[in-house]
Fold this protein.
Amino acid sequence: MSGLMLLPVFLPILAGSGILVSSVTAKQKKAPDLTEEARNKLHLFSAAVLVVSAVLAIVLAWSGDLSLTLFYLMKDIPVFFHIDGIGRVFVTVISVVWTAICIYSFVYMKHEGGECRFFGLYLVVYGVLVALTFSGNLVTMYLFYELMTLTSMPLVLHNGSREAIMAALKYLFYSMCGAYLGLFGIFFLYRYCSSLTFTPGGTLDPVLASGHEGILLIAIFAMLLGFGVKAGMLPLHAWLPTAHPVAPSPASAALSGIIVKCGVLAIIRSVYYIVGPDFIRGTWVQTTWMVLALMTVFLGSMLAFREPVLKKRLAYSTVSQISYILFGLSALSQTAMTGALLHVVFHAFIKSTLFLVAGIVIFQTGRTKVEELRGLGKEMPKTLWCYTFASLALIGIPPASGFVSKWYLAQGALEAEIGIFSWLGPVVLLVSALLTAGYLFPVTMHGFFPGKSGAQNVWKKQEPPYRMLLPVAFLALMAVLLGVFPNPLIQYFGQIAASVL
């Protein structure tokens, strides 16, 4: 059974690489653009590989604590896979959302072009993400974390414009710098930990660490900053609002819904499974982490509130919302961590829905600014309802999913012994929720009730094809249903939090 863990990793990587090689070969031979028949074959092949890989990944993840050693990087550092509770959560969410975005992309990428390149890379990135979630120790995770950056960067520069190239380079520069900060921390942890294998509660050896607490705290903080880059935490968040507007909407949805969560995963692994939460509890590292997280929550919401371009507004929203998760993790409390893990799942469905809706608007109308969307609900009501349900969830209005995660985050902060942050955290979350309503609801209100100024907006396009609309509707429905029936997730995440705290 353990050997099957290689399939959901290498099957999409090999299939995607094959598509990329065939695409390059066709260009060298100056072959014409894809015919409809060739396009259908590409879509069918991509869907088949992704569905098979996703089903395998999910089934294996829930089959038990499987392990598989690939090779030894050094004598005592294996590169190996191991599936545990956190890995199950992340690989399941990644697989479901990634598949929905793929189905949506079959129609959307006709608008963008370069379909062979996109779907080839899309499959490769999925395989890398599965390997990242299956990683059994810090070194294995770091290898695939770096590979994730390198393989996902071309999705940002897909259209080849100067703006896209500069955004992709910015994404690469920020991500690599962040990863190097993480590597700096790994060097120190290797010396002072009994093992780099992920173990609930951590592996930091108190005897080895005695007398070296100062340098270890610096190393841990460097890891938080470094992996926080991918999660969009201040002060290294600027790549996110730059990359999202220029990337194709499916890539934006994947970046915002999934890729940024890998920064969260790396932080969870580092703090809760290697260092141990007790080592940083009450230190300047925890305090600074909470300050940066709350600053990001507030400033991200403010920047989103003021941003006129829809996709960039959603990008700033991601900056804010991911730091909800980081604040919950920084509180080092069982309830707050449960809320953080809930928000990981809920945000993946919510933000993917919102970005895919933005893609539908661009695909159907070519409009990108919020002010241009007045009257949208008249010709595209189904699309706008999907946006509205996802917005309600992100704001945190019950019974949608965002309410549940934010309730646990606020409750966890109030219960935790973190001084002023026990009440400051919930206050900032509440202010951010109000700002979230302020930057999301106008699209719905002006879309359904445009007023006199909306009469100038003449809508010539109607609802998108169902192959685009159905994945969006599914993701929006999940954003609501997970809030209506949250108990299984709450119990499961509570068990994970209890095991590491």
About this structure: The mean pLDDT is 88. Residues 283-501 form one domain. The beta strands are 67-74, 77-82. The chain is about 75% helix and 5% strand.
